[in-house]
């Protein structure tokens, strides 16, 4: 593994958590291995490690883009990542609201529903602990 891939693996774990990365790695096949290697090196090792934006800002941008594109399957994971990167629930709501004005109300409505589900799950976990 080259240095960029190593950095990417570290950042990916820091942002998404060990459990997510471990699942992704466990589900990797010979067919999907090139894609997993690509996102680890290019996305996590080249983009998320750049000094121009902090992780909070990158998380906000990621949520806005996922919302705008209707990539609902990725929103919950990145709401959790944003919270881990120091973005507050109120700030996440502002990102989704702002995105709705430019990307459309249906996209923001779906993202709000997913975001609320994540916040509810985390509240339940906190009360159980």
- N-to-C span: 38 Å
Structural class: mainly alpha
**In angstroms, what is the radius of gyration?**
15 Å
How many beta-strand segments? 0
Helix coverage percent: over 70%
**Average pLDDT across residues?**
95
How large is the count of helical segments? 7
Structure report:
Helices cover 81% and strands 0% of the residues. By secondary structure, the protein is an all-alpha fold. Helix 1 crosses helix 3 (33-47), helix 5 crosses helix 7 and helix 6 (89-103) packs antiparallel against helix 7. The chain is globular and about 40 Å long. The N and C termini lie far apart (38 Å). The model has no long low-confidence stretch (mean pLDDT 95).
What's the layout of helices and strands?
Elements: H1 3-16, H2 18-26, H3 33-47, H4 55-69, H5 72-84, H6 89-103, H7 105-128
Helix pairs in contact: 1-2, 1-3, 4-5, 4-6, 5-7, 6-7
Brief overview, please?
This protein has helices spanning 3-16, 18-26, 33-47, 55-69, 72-84, 89-103, 105-128.
Key traits:
single chain; mainly alpha; 0% strand; 129 residues
């Amino acid at each position: 593994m080259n240095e960029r891939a190593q950095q990417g693996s570290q950042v990916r774990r820091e942002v998404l958590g060990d459990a997510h990365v471990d699942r992704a790695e466990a589900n990797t096949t010979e067919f999907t291995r090139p894609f997993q290697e690509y996102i680890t090196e290019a996305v996590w090792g080249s983009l998320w490690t750049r000094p121009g934006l902090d992780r909070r800002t990158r998380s906000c941008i990621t949520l806005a883009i996922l919302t705008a594109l209707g990539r609902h399957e990725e929103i919950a994971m990145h709401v959790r990542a944003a919270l881990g990167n120091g973005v507050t629930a109120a700030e996440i709501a502002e990102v989704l609201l702002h995105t709705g004005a430019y990307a459309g109300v249906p996209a923001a409505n779906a993202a709000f529903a997913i975001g609320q589900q994540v916040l509810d799950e985390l509240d339940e976990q906190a009360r159980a602990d």
